[in-house]
Specification:
alpha+beta; disordered C terminus
Length: about 325
Protein backbone atom coordinates (compact mmCIF):
# COMPACT_ATOMS: atom_id res chain seq x y z
CA UNK A 1 0.00 0.00 0.00
CA UNK A 2 2.83 2.41 0.86
CA UNK A 3 4.58 1.73 -2.47
CA UNK A 4 1.39 2.35 -4.40
CA UNK A 5 0.83 5.60 -2.54
CA UNK A 6 4.41 6.73 -3.28
CA UNK A 7 4.04 6.04 -7.00
CA UNK A 8 0.77 7.94 -7.06
CA UNK A 9 2.28 10.97 -5.35
CA UNK A 10 5.26 10.91 -7.75
CA UNK A 11 2.99 10.78 -10.78
CA UNK A 12 0.93 13.69 -9.50
CA UNK A 13 4.09 15.79 -8.92
CA UNK A 14 5.37 15.03 -12.43
CA UNK A 15 2.03 16.04 -13.96
CA UNK A 16 2.04 19.28 -11.99
CA UNK A 17 5.66 20.10 -12.98
CA UNK A 18 5.13 19.65 -16.75
CA UNK A 19 3.43 23.05 -17.35
CA UNK A 20 5.91 24.78 -15.04
CA UNK A 21 8.85 23.39 -17.01
CA UNK A 22 7.22 24.35 -20.29
CA UNK A 23 6.54 27.87 -19.10
CA UNK A 24 10.17 28.31 -18.04
CA UNK A 25 11.63 26.63 -21.13
CA UNK A 26 9.85 28.73 -23.75
CA UNK A 27 11.57 32.08 -22.91
CA UNK A 28 14.93 30.36 -22.61
CA UNK A 29 14.42 28.68 -25.98
CA UNK A 30 13.43 31.95 -27.61
CA UNK A 31 16.48 33.67 -26.13
CA UNK A 32 18.80 30.94 -27.43
CA UNK A 33 17.21 31.07 -30.87
CA UNK A 34 17.63 34.82 -31.07
CA UNK A 35 21.23 34.56 -29.93
CA UNK A 36 21.95 31.87 -32.52
CA UNK A 37 20.32 33.95 -35.24
CA UNK A 38 22.35 36.98 -34.24
CA UNK A 39 25.57 34.98 -34.24
CA UNK A 40 24.84 33.78 -37.78
CA UNK A 41 24.48 37.34 -38.98
CA UNK A 42 28.18 38.07 -38.69
CA UNK A 43 28.31 40.98 -41.07
CA UNK A 44 26.11 44.01 -41.53
CA UNK A 45 25.10 45.12 -45.01
CA UNK A 46 27.88 47.74 -44.99
CA UNK A 47 30.43 45.13 -43.92
CA UNK A 48 29.20 42.74 -46.63
CA UNK A 49 29.69 45.52 -49.20
CA UNK A 50 33.24 46.03 -47.89
CA UNK A 51 33.98 42.31 -48.21
CA UNK A 52 32.51 42.28 -51.72
CA UNK A 53 34.82 45.08 -52.86
CA UNK A 54 37.82 43.33 -51.32
CA UNK A 55 36.99 40.04 -53.05
CA UNK A 56 36.47 41.70 -56.43
CA UNK A 57 39.85 43.44 -56.11
CA UNK A 58 41.57 40.14 -55.30
CA UNK A 59 39.81 38.38 -58.16
CA UNK A 60 40.93 41.12 -60.54
CA UNK A 61 44.55 40.49 -59.57
CA UNK A 62 44.22 36.70 -59.76
CA UNK A 63 42.52 36.71 -63.16
CA UNK A 64 45.30 38.89 -64.55
CA UNK A 65 43.04 40.80 -66.91
CA UNK A 66 43.72 44.13 -65.22
CA UNK A 67 46.16 44.78 -62.43
CA UNK A 68 44.50 46.61 -59.53
CA UNK A 69 46.07 49.50 -57.67
CA UNK A 70 48.77 48.28 -55.29
CA UNK A 71 47.26 50.07 -52.28
CA UNK A 72 43.79 48.67 -52.97
CA UNK A 73 45.15 45.15 -53.39
CA UNK A 74 47.13 45.41 -50.17
CA UNK A 75 44.06 46.48 -48.18
CA UNK A 76 41.79 43.96 -49.95
CA UNK A 77 44.02 41.05 -48.92
CA UNK A 78 44.13 42.43 -45.38
CA UNK A 79 40.31 42.55 -45.26
CA UNK A 80 39.97 39.00 -46.59
CA UNK A 81 42.47 37.63 -44.04
CA UNK A 82 40.64 39.48 -41.28
CA UNK A 83 37.34 37.96 -42.41
CA UNK A 84 38.73 34.43 -42.03
CA UNK A 85 40.13 35.17 -38.57
CA UNK A 86 36.91 36.90 -37.49
CA UNK A 87 34.72 33.94 -38.46
CA UNK A 88 37.01 31.50 -36.65
CA UNK A 89 36.91 33.58 -33.46
CA UNK A 90 33.13 34.00 -33.59
CA UNK A 91 32.69 30.25 -34.01
CA UNK A 92 34.87 29.42 -31.02
CA UNK A 93 33.86 31.97 -28.41
CA UNK A 94 31.65 34.91 -27.59
CA UNK A 95 33.09 37.93 -29.35
CA UNK A 96 31.09 41.14 -29.24
CA UNK A 97 33.20 43.37 -31.49
CA UNK A 98 31.83 44.14 -34.93
CA UNK A 99 33.79 43.24 -38.02
CA UNK A 100 34.50 46.92 -38.64
CA UNK A 101 36.00 47.25 -35.16
CA UNK A 102 38.02 44.09 -35.79
CA UNK A 103 39.37 44.95 -39.24
CA UNK A 104 40.09 48.69 -39.01
CA UNK A 105 43.22 48.37 -36.81
CA UNK A 106 44.58 45.81 -39.26
CA UNK A 107 43.92 48.08 -42.21
CA UNK A 108 45.70 50.88 -40.40
CA UNK A 109 48.84 48.71 -40.23
CA UNK A 110 48.91 48.19 -44.01
CA UNK A 111 51.67 49.92 -45.97
CA UNK A 112 49.61 52.31 -48.07
CA UNK A 113 50.77 55.33 -50.02
CA UNK A 114 47.45 56.96 -50.94
CA UNK A 115 45.02 56.66 -48.02
CA UNK A 116 42.51 58.99 -49.65
CA UNK A 117 42.11 56.59 -52.55
CA UNK A 118 41.75 53.59 -50.21
CA UNK A 119 39.20 55.32 -47.96
CA UNK A 120 37.20 56.47 -50.98
CA UNK A 121 37.15 53.07 -52.69
CA UNK A 122 36.30 50.97 -49.63
CA UNK A 123 34.14 53.71 -48.06
CA UNK A 124 35.87 53.29 -44.73
CA UNK A 125 34.48 55.20 -41.76
CA UNK A 126 36.54 58.12 -40.51
CA UNK A 127 38.97 56.95 -37.87
CA UNK A 128 41.58 58.92 -35.92
CA UNK A 129 44.30 56.46 -36.87
CA UNK A 130 43.84 57.19 -40.56
CA UNK A 131 44.10 60.91 -39.95
CA UNK A 132 47.32 60.44 -38.02
CA UNK A 133 48.74 58.27 -40.78
CA UNK A 134 47.96 60.91 -43.40
CA UNK A 135 49.67 63.58 -41.30
CA UNK A 136 52.73 61.38 -41.06
CA UNK A 137 52.75 60.82 -44.81
CA UNK A 138 52.56 64.54 -45.52
CA UNK A 139 55.44 65.22 -43.15
CA UNK A 140 57.53 62.50 -44.77
CA UNK A 141 56.78 63.98 -48.19
CA UNK A 142 58.15 67.36 -47.17
CA UNK A 143 61.29 65.73 -45.86
CA UNK A 144 61.73 63.61 -48.98
CA UNK A 145 61.93 66.60 -51.32
CA UNK A 146 65.67 66.63 -50.63
CA UNK A 147 67.18 63.71 -52.52
CA UNK A 148 70.41 62.28 -51.24
CA UNK A 149 73.15 61.45 -53.74
CA UNK A 150 73.76 57.93 -52.40
CA UNK A 151 72.30 55.61 -49.81
CA UNK A 152 74.56 54.63 -46.94
CA UNK A 153 73.91 51.27 -45.26
CA UNK A 154 76.55 49.61 -43.11
CA UNK A 155 76.63 45.85 -42.82
CA UNK A 156 75.01 45.20 -46.18
CA UNK A 157 71.30 45.42 -46.89
CA UNK A 158 69.35 42.32 -45.90
CA UNK A 159 65.58 42.21 -45.70
CA UNK A 160 65.25 39.82 -42.78
CA UNK A 161 61.51 39.37 -43.12
CA UNK A 162 61.78 38.36 -46.78
CA UNK A 163 65.14 36.57 -46.34
CA UNK A 164 66.80 38.25 -49.33
CA UNK A 165 69.72 40.63 -49.86
CA UNK A 166 69.86 43.72 -52.03
CA UNK A 167 73.03 43.92 -54.10
CA UNK A 168 72.38 47.27 -55.78
CA UNK A 169 69.79 50.02 -56.16
CA UNK A 170 69.58 52.13 -59.31
CA UNK A 171 67.29 55.13 -59.65
CA UNK A 172 66.87 56.61 -63.13
CA UNK A 173 70.08 54.92 -64.31
CA UNK A 174 72.05 56.35 -61.39
CA UNK A 175 73.55 53.95 -58.85
CA UNK A 176 72.52 55.08 -55.38
CA UNK A 177 73.53 51.94 -53.49
CA UNK A 178 76.03 49.13 -53.99
CA UNK A 179 76.37 46.37 -51.43
CA UNK A 180 80.07 46.22 -50.64
CA UNK A 181 79.62 43.84 -47.68
CA UNK A 182 78.25 40.75 -49.37
CA UNK A 183 81.14 38.32 -48.86
CA UNK A 184 78.87 35.71 -47.29
CA UNK A 185 76.72 35.60 -50.44
CA UNK A 186 79.51 34.56 -52.81
CA UNK A 187 81.51 31.38 -53.22
CA UNK A 188 84.63 30.59 -55.24
CA UNK A 189 84.00 28.48 -58.32
CA UNK A 190 86.51 26.05 -59.81
CA UNK A 191 88.23 28.89 -61.68
CA UNK A 192 88.59 30.98 -58.54
CA UNK A 193 85.95 33.52 -59.52
CA UNK A 194 83.50 34.93 -56.97
CA UNK A 195 80.08 33.60 -57.93
CA UNK A 196 76.79 34.32 -56.18
CA UNK A 197 75.43 31.27 -54.39
CA UNK A 198 71.96 31.78 -55.81
CA UNK A 199 70.25 33.97 -58.38
CA UNK A 200 69.43 37.65 -58.89
CA UNK A 201 66.09 39.19 -59.84
CA UNK A 202 65.71 42.81 -60.92
CA UNK A 203 62.67 44.37 -59.22
CA UNK A 204 61.70 47.40 -61.30
CA UNK A 205 59.34 49.98 -59.77
CA UNK A 206 58.03 52.51 -62.31
CA UNK A 207 56.37 55.71 -61.08
CA UNK A 208 53.07 56.30 -62.82
CA UNK A 209 53.01 60.08 -62.44
CA UNK A 210 56.59 61.22 -61.84
CA UNK A 211 58.12 58.69 -64.22
CA UNK A 212 60.88 57.55 -61.88
CA UNK A 213 62.38 54.11 -62.51
CA UNK A 214 63.85 52.38 -59.45
CA UNK A 215 65.62 49.06 -59.81
CA UNK A 216 66.45 46.72 -56.95
CA UNK A 217 68.84 43.89 -57.74
CA UNK A 218 67.78 41.28 -55.21
CA UNK A 219 69.79 38.16 -54.39
CA UNK A 220 67.93 34.93 -53.56
CA UNK A 221 69.92 32.10 -51.98
CA UNK A 222 70.50 28.82 -53.77
CA UNK A 223 67.69 26.92 -52.03
CA UNK A 224 65.16 29.67 -52.71
CA UNK A 225 66.30 29.92 -56.33
CA UNK A 226 65.96 26.18 -56.88
CA UNK A 227 62.38 26.19 -55.54
CA UNK A 228 61.29 29.15 -57.66
CA UNK A 229 63.20 28.81 -60.92
CA UNK A 230 63.75 25.06 -61.22
CA UNK A 231 60.63 23.67 -59.55
CA UNK A 232 58.56 26.70 -60.58
CA UNK A 233 56.88 26.65 -57.18
CA UNK A 234 55.27 29.84 -55.85
CA UNK A 235 57.50 32.15 -57.86
CA UNK A 236 55.10 35.05 -58.41
CA UNK A 237 53.78 34.85 -54.86
CA UNK A 238 57.37 35.06 -53.61
CA UNK A 239 58.11 38.03 -55.90
CA UNK A 240 55.03 39.89 -54.70
CA UNK A 241 55.98 39.26 -51.09
CA UNK A 242 59.51 40.57 -51.62
CA UNK A 243 58.16 43.67 -53.41
CA UNK A 244 56.01 44.42 -50.36
CA UNK A 245 59.00 43.83 -48.10
CA UNK A 246 61.03 46.37 -50.09
CA UNK A 247 58.32 49.00 -49.60
CA UNK A 248 58.13 48.17 -45.91
CA UNK A 249 61.91 48.28 -45.40
CA UNK A 250 62.36 51.74 -46.85
CA UNK A 251 59.22 53.11 -45.21
CA UNK A 252 60.55 52.09 -41.81
CA UNK A 253 64.08 53.29 -42.62
CA UNK A 254 62.77 56.70 -43.69
CA UNK A 255 65.03 56.79 -46.75
CA UNK A 256 64.60 60.02 -48.69
CA UNK A 257 65.76 59.06 -52.15
CA UNK A 258 63.90 55.85 -52.93
CA UNK A 259 60.12 56.10 -53.24
CA UNK A 260 58.01 59.21 -53.61
CA UNK A 261 55.09 59.32 -51.20
CA UNK A 262 52.80 60.97 -53.76
CA UNK A 263 53.45 58.56 -56.63
CA UNK A 264 52.08 55.12 -57.41
CA UNK A 265 54.31 52.39 -58.75
CA UNK A 266 53.83 49.49 -61.10
CA UNK A 267 56.13 46.54 -60.56
CA UNK A 268 58.03 44.45 -63.07
CA UNK A 269 60.18 41.42 -62.32
CA UNK A 270 63.12 40.71 -64.64
CA UNK A 271 64.64 37.29 -63.99
CA UNK A 272 66.79 35.36 -63.62
CA UNK A 273 70.50 36.25 -63.51
CA UNK A 274 73.70 34.64 -62.37
CA UNK A 275 76.00 37.10 -60.64
CA UNK A 276 79.78 37.47 -60.36
CA UNK A 277 81.83 39.94 -58.36
CA UNK A 278 85.28 41.32 -59.06
CA UNK A 279 87.12 44.51 -58.11
CA UNK A 280 84.03 46.13 -56.59
CA UNK A 281 81.86 45.40 -59.63
CA UNK A 282 78.84 43.15 -60.07
CA UNK A 283 78.35 41.32 -63.34
CA UNK A 284 74.90 39.78 -63.88
CA UNK A 285 73.85 37.79 -66.94
CA UNK A 286 70.88 35.61 -67.82
CA UNK A 287 71.08 32.03 -69.07
CA UNK A 288 70.20 32.98 -72.63
CA UNK A 289 73.09 35.48 -72.70
CA UNK A 290 70.71 38.11 -74.04
CA UNK A 291 70.69 40.48 -71.08
CA UNK A 292 73.39 41.58 -68.70
CA UNK A 293 74.29 44.29 -66.21
CA UNK A 294 77.61 45.62 -65.02
CA UNK A 295 77.32 47.74 -61.88
CA UNK A 296 79.87 49.54 -59.78
CA UNK A 297 79.42 52.34 -57.26
CA UNK A 298 79.41 54.99 -60.00
CA UNK A 299 77.55 53.62 -63.00
CA UNK A 300 75.51 50.84 -64.57
CA UNK A 301 75.95 49.29 -68.01
CA UNK A 302 73.22 47.32 -69.77
CA UNK A 303 72.03 46.20 -73.23
CA UNK A 304 75.35 45.42 -74.93
CA UNK A 305 76.02 41.97 -73.50
CA UNK A 306 79.26 41.30 -75.40
CA UNK A 307 80.80 44.61 -74.35
CA UNK A 308 79.78 44.08 -70.75
CA UNK A 309 81.31 40.59 -70.67
CA UNK A 310 84.51 41.84 -72.24
CA UNK A 311 84.84 44.73 -69.79
CA UNK A 312 84.23 42.56 -66.73
CA UNK A 313 86.55 39.73 -67.73
CA UNK A 314 89.12 42.04 -69.33
CA UNK A 315 89.22 40.00 -72.52
CA UNK A 316 88.77 41.04 -76.13
CA UNK A 317 86.86 37.98 -77.24
CA UNK A 318 83.78 38.19 -75.07
CA UNK A 319 82.10 35.11 -76.52
CA UNK A 320 85.00 32.79 -75.87
CA UNK A 321 85.49 34.27 -72.41
CA UNK A 322 81.85 33.65 -71.64
CA UNK A 323 82.10 30.03 -72.70
CA UNK A 324 85.40 29.28 -70.99
CA UNK A 325 85.14 31.22 -67.74
CA UNK A 326 81.48 31.10 -66.82
CA UNK A 327 80.05 27.63 -66.23
CA UNK A 328 76.36 27.46 -67.10
Amino acid sequence: MAKLLGKLIGTIINIVMIPIVLILAIPVGILKARRAQKSRLLFTSAEQALLGKAQRTINMEENGLLSPDRDLLEVAKCIENARCDYQIIKARERFDSTFYEFVLPRINNCYVIDWDNVNSFFELPSQPQFTETNDFIEETLVQSNTVEETLECSGGMRLEEAEVDILAIVRNDKVIYLNSEADDLFVRDKDGDEKLDGRVVNFVFSGQSEGACIEFFVAFDDSDSYTMFTLQAGMMERFNYVAQAIFKYFAEAGSKNIFSITDRYSTQYIYTFKAYRKSGKYFMVNNAQTQAYLIDNLSIMRDDVDEIKAMFWNKSNAESVFDDDIPF
